[in-house]
Each structure stands twice: as structure tokens, then as C-alpha cells.
Amino acid sequence: MKIFQVFFKTLKKRSVSVIIYFMIFLALSVLMSGNGKKQTEAVYKDAKVKVAVLDRDNSVLSKSLYDYLSNTQKIVEIKDDKQSISDELFYQNVEYVLIIKKGFEEGIKTGKYEDIVENVKVPQSISGKLLDSKIDQYLSELSTYMAAGFSAEEAAKNTLKNSEITADVKLYKVQGASEEKSSAYYYYLYIPYVLIGMLMTGVGSILLIFRKKDLDWRIKCSSMPELRKNSILLLACGVFSFVCWAVFVLLSLLLYRTDILTGKGALFILNSLVFLLVAMSLIYMVSFLVKTLNAMNMAANVISLGLSFLGGIFVPLEYMSKSVVQFSKVLPTYWYVVNNEAIDSFVNTTKQYHTILRNFGIELIFAVLFFVIALYLSKSRAIAQHG
């Protein structure tokens, strides 16, 4: 078992890099899991916008619009000049400035009210766009009353009265299908990044050392068969990888005991174990593709970060374009993340069981694929050396 002992002695010298990845993971998981709330009762609440109204018409109907906004939003008084408008928006004293143009009431009476108001709002403001819709609806209702023969006073009174009719609307999330993720979800989300980075820096570098020409030939000169040497190396890699994974699982039990000691928690753990096999196979394959320790360290950073960004770990899949998501499907991290989400929303249905099992299968296919490629590269390398 000399090779086994040398493996871990060499690993001890690489321990700094392993510890750095562990600390990065710990910081990421604890920080981000704090954002995961188990349940949220109400997820929608109508927000009031800070609005400034500049009434340049001073008519019955323009005052009606002002009254409507004062009842439903937060009215802020500002000066009616361009500089004041710019300053107030810049310093976020207001979010929305509505300008009621001269001729507003006439426009409502004739039904041509498209250009009788204008607004200035914070760019890309969702609440501002929602307020646009509310104002358009109010103007449409005013115009309808005027077209029906009501006087300006009656139209203003009826429209304002109608706007006061509200319904107490709340959107509820179904338990297990919420956008708010559990703490365990966020914890296990980052495991692929740290496993690939940590194991490639530690295990991958040691595999390179054992493949150095001088050391490789010295081992070949001994009585140890090549198959036994490779088997011991793989065993050492597996033991170290499993110990790293076990540490992460134990840490999750300490931090999020109530989340982990459940059926979902067991699936989170199983998902990470399956990905451990993917990471080990990937690292074994990459060890045949690079030749120096510096190249291995570079590969560890590029591959771990690349798979994390494109696979949905660092950037949520819903924020990616369709073309990027389609490409992500050829990456093992994509299926890990999709499975992580499926587990977090798991509510014990047969369809969800099948989805989770299918994703496990796809992850295992990646593991087998990487391992087969590694065996091919190993065989090609052996033929080249003896050729």
C-alpha cells in the first residue's frame, strides 16, 4: 500500500488549496442559504409609488385624476420645471412624475386622450409601468362616462367612486412549489462548484505527479502490475473524495438539521453523492488532458467556474436566454441544479419521483461517459509510450 500512503502524503502538501475551496464553499452556502425561506404566506402586495402630479389644465377632470392618485399613491409636491423634475428623480425623492397637459378635459370629452398626459419615471421601473396601466384605465373610464352623456362633475365623481372599489387579493404559494427556496437547497446548490474545484486541485494534481515520466517508470520497474497501481490510485482518490463529501453532509446536518432530517434532505444528499461520481470521473478524464500542475490549477478554476455559471449554480436558469439554457443541457451541472430544484419542490407525487430518478440517471450517464473517455485516453497514452 505504498502508493496509497504516498498519495496522502502528497495530498498533505496540497492541503492549502483544498482548505481555500472549503472556506469559499462554507461562506457561499451559509450566506446564500440565509436567503432561502421555507414558506411565504403572501407573495404579492400592491405598492404605493411616490408620485408628483403637475396639473397644467386645472379642470374638474384633471383634479379628479389628482384625487385618484392621492388616494392610491404617495403624492409628493415638486416644482414644475425640468431641472426640479430631474433632481427629484435623481435623488429618488419621487419615482414617477405625471404631467397633465393643457387641454386635458377637452381630450377626455372628445375621446382623444392618448397624448393629454405624459410621464417621467425611473428607467425600467416595474411599479412605474404598473402605474401607467392604472392611469390609462382611469382615463378610459372617465372618457366612457363623458361619452355616455354625463357632465364632467358626474363623470369625475362616478369614476373616483369606482376606483375606491377594491378586493383584498393575495397570491399564495403552494407548499413545495414556492419561489423561495429552503436553506438546504442553497447549501447543496454550491456543492458541485466546490467538489470540482477542490478535487481537481487536490486529486487531479496528485494524479499528474504519479504520471510524471520518472516516477511512472520507477513504479513500472517494480513488481507491481499496472492494473494494481491504477486500482490503488483510484481507491485513494475515491476515499479522499468520499471523505470531502461526507464532511459537507455532516456540516449540513449541523447547520440545517430540520431540513436535512427529512425525505427531501435524503434526496439532496443522494443528489450530491451522484454528482460526486460525476466530479471524480471528470477529474480523472482531465488528468489525462493536462500535463503540468499549473495547467491543472487553471483547469480547476476554468471548469468549476464555467460549469457553475453555465449550469445554473451562480446564475439562475430562469435568468438565462433560451439558447444558453439549451446549451446548458449538455453540462452535468444543469441536471444537478434541475434535480436540486425538483427535490426542493418535492410533494410526493409519482411524476416528481420519475423526474428526480431520470435526472439521477442522466448525471450517472455523464459519470460513465467521462470515465470511458478517461480509459480511452489512458489506453492511448500507454500505446504512445510503448510505441
Automatic annotation (TrEMBL):
Keyword terms: Cell membrane, Membrane, Transmembrane, Transmembrane helix
Naturally occurring in which organism (per UniProt): Anaerocolumna xylanovorans DSM 12503
PANTHER family: LINEARMYCIN RESISTANCE PERMEASE PROTEIN LNRN, MEMBRANE COMPONENT OF ABC TRANSPORTER YHHJ-RELATED
Protein name: ABC-2 type transport system permease protein
Location(s), subcellular: Cell membrane
Family matches, as InterPro entries: ABC-2_transporter_component (IPR051449), ABC2_TM (IPR013525)
Matches recorded under Pfam families: ABC2_membrane_3
Membrane topology according to the record: Multi-pass membrane protein
Occurrences of domain ABC-2 type transporter transmembrane (ranges): 17-376
Transmembrane regions listed in the UniProt entry: 16-34, 185-210, 231-256, 268-286, 298-317, 356-377
